[in-house]
């Protein structure tokens, strides 16, 4: 198969499918947003709490996809060419993600105890940390993270579009050169984001593994989403003529590896805290191992690790489009559960008692994000037209 033999533009049938999916996602998103608005007037504090972990999920979809884009430019390989356009479309949703940060900005007093001067004045540890944990510096760091992600998304999308026009231009070299520094920025920004937006909810607790957990969580969230998207696209042209079981097999191996890495980091953090058995460290886990929260933790052990790990060991399953997509969707659901387990117990400080807004918030935020993503996805051809590895990607699994 040659590049000249295929038109990679979104086909009429696929365009109709994308618009139908977008309409459904928008309806679900708007309904969720309306419920969240009603919840805000009913209980503003609960609204902000539910919104925070829901926002972290969609931020992971966008930033994680941007990271896979940079990884592919850095390492090369046919595996990344087929997912490049979904990665670029997800990265182009970052302006929406930045806009969605507004409720967290407004809700700082409802989310973070370190933002209250009276609480800080009565707590010696918070006084010590106040140099870092204060509202102006918090907002400055958030602006830096978002601005950096937005710049990287703009940069790679701009030069990818230029490469489609001129194969002999400097576009690919520029993107490959930016990928390394971009990944370094991503690692630091996501680590500090995890500290700022999640770890500081309980400013008395700390973990050296927390940033790593969020880094692998974003990569896992994005890969599960990309697999789902690729399987949906495989039923229509042009991707029905491009994707082979080997492409999905490669992506499935990434999913398996990330499931294992997430489990390793999660267990390492637990083991370090358990072995240390220090009064300042163990309360974080004590809250999550009683009052019903322990069952959520067990669900993560089996649903986020054991089950997908056992299934993804199968070579045949990773080459079965529908089965692999089913596992990917399940992993996405478990990513939501994981974020909820990481965030919610620090607010409740009591038994497991979910609010109806814990369903409305992720539904609304994810629905609106997905509708915008689908809008972006149909704007460009579904394969990078002049990528130097395009021919290899088309032949991948056909020899």
Task: Give the SSE map.
Blueprint: H1 12-42, H2 44-75, H3 78-81, H4 84-91, H5 94-100, H6 102-106, H7 108-111, H8 117-121, H9 124-129, H10 135-165, H11 171-197, H12 210-233, H13 245-276, H14 282-288, H15 293-312, H16 315-318, H17 321-348, H18 357-377, H19 390-395
- Mean pLDDT over all positions: 91
User: Number of DSSP helices?
Assistant: 19
Helix content: over 70%
Low-pLDDT segments: none
What is the H-and-E element order? HHHHHHHHHHHHHHHHHHH
Number of domains: 1
Q: Would you count the extended β strands for me? A: 0
Gyration radius over CA: 22 Å
Task: Give the overall shape.
Answer: globular
Strand content: under 5%
Give the distance, in angstroms, between the N- and C-terminal Cα atoms: 10 Å
Biggest β-sheet, characterized? none
Based on helices, strands and strand pairing, what is the structural class? mainly alpha
Describe, in short, the structure shown.
With 399 residues, this protein is mainly alpha-helical.
């Amino acid at each position: 198969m040659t590049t000249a033999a295929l038109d990679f533009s979104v086909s009429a049938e696929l365009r109709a499918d994308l618009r139908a999916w977008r309409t459904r996602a928008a309806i679900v998103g708007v309904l969720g947003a309306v419920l969240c608005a009603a919840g805000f007037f009913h209980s503003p504090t609960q609204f902000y709490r539910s919104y925070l972990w829901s926002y972290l999920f969609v931020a992971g979809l966008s930033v994680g996809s941007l990271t896979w884009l940079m990884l592919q430019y850095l390492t090369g390989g046919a595996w990344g060419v087929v997912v490049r356009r979904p990665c670029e479309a997800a990265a182009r949703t970052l302006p929406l993600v930045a806009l969605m940060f507004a409720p967290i900005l407004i809700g700082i007093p409802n989310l973070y105890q370190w933002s209250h001067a009276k609480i800080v004045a009565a707590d010696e540890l918070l006084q010590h940390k106040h140099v870092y944990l204060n509202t102006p510096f918090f907002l400055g760091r958030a602006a830096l993270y978002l601005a950096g992600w937005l710049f990287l998304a703009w940069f790679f999308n701009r030069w990818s579009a230029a490469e489609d026009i001129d194969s002999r231009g400097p576009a690919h070299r520029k993107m490959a050169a930016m990928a390394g520094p971009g990944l370094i920025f991503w690692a630091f920004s996501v680590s500090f984001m995890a500290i700022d937006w999640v770890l500081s909810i309980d400013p008395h607790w700390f973990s050296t593994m927390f940033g790593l957990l969020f880094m692998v969580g974003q990569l896992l969230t994005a890969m599960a989403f990309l697999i789902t998207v690729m399987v949906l696209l495989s039923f229509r042209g042009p991707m029905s003529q491009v994707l082979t079981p080997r492409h999905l097999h490669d992506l499935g191996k990434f999913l398996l590896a990330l499931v294992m890495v997430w489990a390793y980091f999660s267990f390492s953090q637990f083991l370090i805290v358990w072995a240390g058995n220090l009064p300042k460290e163990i309360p974080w886990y004590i809250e999550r191992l009683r009052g019903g929260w322990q069952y959520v933790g067990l669900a993560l052990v089996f649903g986020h690790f054991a089950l997908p790990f056992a299934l993804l060991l199968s070579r045949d399953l990773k080459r079965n489009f529908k089965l692999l997509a089913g596992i990917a969707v399940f992993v996405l659901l478990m990513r939501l559960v994981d974020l909820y387990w990481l965030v919610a117990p620090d607010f409740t400080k009591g038994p497991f008692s979910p609010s109806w807004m814990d369903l409305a918030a992720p539904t609304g935020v994810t629905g609106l994000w997905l509708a915008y993503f689908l809008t972006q996805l149909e704007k460009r051809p579904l394969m990078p037209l002049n990528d130097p590895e395009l021919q290899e990607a088309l032949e991948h699994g056909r020899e």
